[in-house]
Amino acid sequence: MLAMRIEFFHDVLSCWCFNASERLRTFVSAHPQVEVIHRAWPLGTDRTLFTRLFPDPKAAKHEIVLQHWGDAVRVEHEHRIRPELMMSRDFDYPYSMPAQRGCKAAEKQAGQQGHWDYFDRAQQAHLSDCDNVADPDVLTRCARDVGLDVNAWLRDFEDSQRDIEIGMDLGLAKAYGVVRVPILIADGRAQLHGDPWSTFGYRITAERLDAWYADLARARQTGRF
Question: In this protein, which residues make up the domain named DSBA-like thioredoxin (predicted)?
């Protein structure tokens, strides 16, 4: 069995990361020697990003939810993403940083597994429950739901060190040449980015993940990785 350190670059807002996280969890359960390191790659680093890309917040929400979420719905294994529900909500499409800070605060308290559990719960809040994941109350509820010490999580969430940690992940992503997520990077070298799907994400299938791992195992056996 091939031991490997996989860096998983992701954003809570990404519907493609929602699917990739599910598949990666299944993969790791079959390959427990694989270590997953979670990296923040926020699509929207401030509230103005989507208004710079789109004519107005309403247009941004309309395209992202109906087009990109809709594409993900058509290929997901079970119906978890709910575009119609999100379009019924009266808030603008959220930006990434609050939820990314929440993930880093979870990591501070509970390590990589805590980051992953919180990330998945926040994605559920965003894509299934269609809550506003830029709202601290929603993010706090996610912390409670995954069993974190909420008071400690709140202190860590508000600590400016979280922004430094996110910035470090972004610097690493730039060095790797990451341009969209989800992306997996094995041992700092071999990338799996899946098929480009919509504008904002890659589609990583279980089959592609298994084939990538098998390729790396053969490459290591022959001294090429």
Answer: 6-201
